[in-house]
Specification:
about 650 residues, alpha/beta, Rossmann fold, 4 domains, seven-stranded parallel β-sheet, 25 helices, 26 strands, about 20% strand, globular
Amino acid sequence: MDYSNPLIVQSDRTLLLDVHAPKAEECRNALIPFAELERSPEHLHTYRLTPLSLWNAAGAGFTPDNAVSVLKQFARYDVPQSIEVWIHETAGRFGKLRLVPAPWIMVSGKPAKTGENAEGESLPPGAHSGSPASDVARTPPSPRGDSLKTCSASFALNGSLPTPKTPEENLIKIEYLYLVTESYAVYREIGATAIGKKLLTECEYEEPQDDFMKQTVVSDDEKKFCYRLPLTDRGTVKQELLKLGWPIKDDVPMEDGESLEISLRETTKSGQPFSIRQYQKEAAQAIVGDKGPGTGFGTIVLPCGAGKTIVGMTVMSLLKTSTLVITTNISAVHQWIGELLDKTNLTEDDIAEYTGENKVIKPVTVATYQILTWRPEKDGPYPHFSLFRKRKWGLIVYDEVHTLPAPVFRVAAEIQAVRRVGLTATLVREDGMEGNVFCLVGPKRYDVPWKDLEHSGFIATAECIEVRLDLCESKEIEYAVSDQRKKHRIASENPVKFEFVRELVEKSPEDKILVIGQYLSQLEELSRMLKCPLITGKTPNEERDRIYAQFRSGEIRVLVVSKVANFAIDLPDASMAIQVSGTFGSRQEEAQRLGRILRPKERKSRFFTLITRNTVEEEFGSNRQKFLAEQGYQYRLLRCKDLSDLDLYLQNETLCLQ
């Protein structure tokens, strides 16, 4: 026991971090790979160990021994033995089930409709309808002794195939995978699950015909305990077994796409010297690996402003293949295209935009999530999912992967054979769907603590200030009798905030300022008061790009924006953000909004959040701050009864001037 250590490890899997202890900052950084922050009050921060946090760590090469070693290194008291055992048992589940290649078969007949599944939705390359009208049906699950003969008969020995009874043009290639384990107990447990009974067939292991697929090593024990599943069920099985506490390690080699000669410039097209930072190289290499089994997919977690786009371009240059980039909005599409033209050898003939305005497909195509999830009828198919199969893509880049819409998860489950990378500043999702990112896009392969990059000068130093204000007297009765949702809106739109916004803007003449909020009526009034432009979801894309360009050039100094500016907007000179309202307790949104002012610059950035005191906004605000607190950001609390309190603070503080 070392009473000077900062960490208390408890048997309920919570970790208490004493932020005043000497090694607190070092300990916080060491916990980031495998623990999740739950609460962050002034003195003790509470972390929790969860299965998903351990499996993400395992996907990045962080072992159970590494996790236990960190706990022992920083623990004030002895680490409970039950915690050590649980970490080894839980993290050890990652890799006990593996997906590996299986032989394909040829059958006569044809799917219900070429290029569509049973629901009439477009399928990507390599995906097939789950119910072909053929003379070979899926073998139903059965006791192992019976299924050995049935399943083995569907695969010809030594890769030879049955002589077809129909012309060659009527043959369909049906592809399969194996789910294998070295444990008989695990094998029986999986077979007894609902998903096991529905989609998995017990069978005898046979080598795949393709030499490329044979590079995946399968142990003798794994060959004994083997299930077969259709290739098209790859994503679904991974999703469903994760829900049951069984993460699957996907060791099926990725398919190569169309080749594309792409390289990074040493001098940008605009004439600036350009080089890749070491952490960006490491992040890209963590995805590409040796291009063998178990590589080519995963998620990169880097702070806003750290150059995630450059990581994506580096992956493209390593793989040299046709690439589909999917991002959050049209402004982000234009930024991606601009970066590709500026920093790679690609030309305008190589790159296309696939959005509501332009639908062109080229070797590198940049699309939005919105166009992919658009459909003419509420319950109809998604017509633009066909984009996934219109070229033989070799790489899919999911930008801001934490925002991936649920329908895109559905198609992502069908294209597991394509190399893919998710880029994000945080894996936090308020809908609890982090598990889908883990199993369909890939586990976290690389991350860097935000403060590490701040200390290295790769992102700006930032100060977070929470300004608490009284509720306007005229709103007190209305607030008292309203429901929870209405109370949040009343507190968020507190009229007192307007005079504080004006004061902050007027007293910060050297800053380029973003005023960010949730409610359009509030933002419209702020825009009129400050006599500055407003960007919302209704602002035409051409006008958005023009206003962003004016802000970058310094033609305008203050810009009011709605949540459309939360993601993937590059405003490098923004040094101050004033947050007047937000989406309840969204930790993800808080991190993204701070990210708007983290591009490296000489002056310190400031992030002001205006909160109405003694209202539900305080509680939501506390939850919003959790992720940033985990990254080492401390919120300075400023209680203001009137403008004089704010003026006193602004006079005494020169944080952003140096």
